[in-house]
Design goal:
Structural class: alpha/beta
Bound molecules: NADP nicotinamide-adenine-dinucleotide phosphate
Distance between the termini: 31 Å
Order of helices and strands: EEEHHEEEEHHEHEHEEHEHEHEHEE
CATH class of the largest domain: Alpha Beta
Radius of gyration: 19 Å
CATH architecture of the largest domain: Alpha-Beta Complex
Shape: globular
Number of domains: 2
CATH topology of the largest domain: Quinone Oxidoreductase, Chain A, domain 1
Helix content: 25-40%
Length: 335
């Protein structure tokens, strides 16, 4: 099978598209023929081995795992002996943070996969796992968001943010979204009640009050959380120093602030699938690339200004399609 492989740390240029053996099935895994992937900041963090401490998990001097990629959607070719909720031929989506998804076939634990909703295509469902699960767990598992509460979402137009705005609305919250002024219209279409353009208003001086602060971009200081919120969840971080400063302040303060690493599981993926099926979440794909342009897709998302998600397809794909540039309507590229 074809796969994007890496034998050292570096930029997207070090990825090689080569023939490798299909992964072998374990009892609690499923083998999936990959139809689509999506790209996440985690992919280039793992590819570059940055921040450095990540190498304690992914390999100190060189990557432990050869094939890159986390998010996938496809059809099930084989199921392990212990797998109960998935059968051969099912359309599934899931994630494997260990890597292995940027390939024609991937093997993943069944408990990080779920059945795709009817009528939704592979690129859209491949765009859901990492970003959707992170948004759901930030708001609900860790943020304990309740109906009627107010939430400020900093970094609301990217992969995690665009899901977070819609999930918060689906759970009955009042949403204030922070993004650049070019994305104000986009986050309003997602349901945001108020929008703050970070290039027009200094978020570090914003004096609004919210029940919950979610920071996907990762530039809010501990003071910002305390000034604006009753509790907070840090999803991303801009610099290591910034993250350490926020976490150190958290240890000496009573302000409830959580930093977490999202963990996929079938239940959360099913919750997201239901929200998508019920049209409460729209999956916005800004660009679709062919599988052989996966390095290009990673280069694009590394700027951290993706509008929604970037997806890659393994079938009937010969060149990248920039949906925005084709001037398709907002509704044409969302579920
Ligand atoms: N904790 C976890 O388990 C976990 C899981 C997944 C992701 N993450 C992290 O979460 C972060 C976001 O991931 P993602 O997939 O959503 O990335 P993404 O798709 O690249 O989105 C990044 C967003 O940040 C916004 N942004 C850029 N500068 C900003 C600023 N100064 N103020 C506010 N927003 C700004 C961008 O909006 P504009 O284009 O409008 O500027 C863009 O929407 C990454 O750091 C990622 O590593 C953490």
């Amino acid at each position: 099978m074809k796969a994007f492989t890496k034998t050292k740390y570096g930029g997207p240029e070090i990825l090689q598209l080569e023939e490798v053996e299909r992964p072998s099935l374990k009892d609690d895994h499923i083998l999936v023929k990959v139809i689509a992937n999506s790209a996440n900041p985690a992919d280039w963090h793992i590819l570059r081995g940055k921040p450095f401490f990540a190498r304690f998990s992914f390999g100190l001097f060189k990557p432990k795992d050869k094939i890159l990629g986390a998010d996938f959607a496809g059809t099930v070719e084989e199921v392990g002996n212990y797998v109960e909720h998935i059968k051969v031929g099912d359309r599934v989506f899931g994630e494997t943070l260990k890597g292995g998804a940027f390939a024609e076939y991937t093997c993943a634990p069944a408990n990080v996969c779920a059945i795709m909703p009817e009528g939704i295509d592979f690129p859209k469902m491949a765009s859901v796992p990492v970003a959707g699960v992170t948004a759901l767990q930030a708001l609900i598992t860790h943020g304990q968001l309740k109906e009627g509460e107010s939430v400020l979402i900093n970094g609301s137009s990217g992969g995690v943010g665009h899901f977070a705005v819609q999930i918060a609305k689906a759970y009955g919250a009042k949403v204030t979204a922070v993004c650049s002024s070019k994305n104000i219209g986009f986050v309003k279409t997602l349901g945001a009640d108020q929008v703050i353009a970070y290039d027009k208003e200094n978020i570090h001086q914003h004096d609004g009050k919210y029940n919950l602060i979610i920071d996907t971009h990762g530039n809010l200081s501990h003071k910002d959380y305390k000034r604006m919120g009753q509790r907070g969840v840090m999803v991303g971080f801009t610099t290591l120093g910034h993250m350490i400063s926020v976490l150190l302040n958290t240890t000496i303060s009573k302000f409830p602030l959580t930093q977490f690493t999202a963990e996929a599981n079938t239940k959360d993926l099913e919750t997201l699938a239901t929200l998508i099926q019920d049209r409460k979440i729209k999956v916005h794909i800004e660009k679709i690339y062919s599988f052989n342009e996966i390095p290009e897709a990673l280069r694009y998302i590394e700027a951290m200004h993706t509008k929604g998600k970037v997806a890659m397809i393994w079938e009937s794909a010969d060149s990248s399609r920039d949906i925005d540039n084709e001037k398709k309507t907002e509704t044409a590229n969302i579920v």
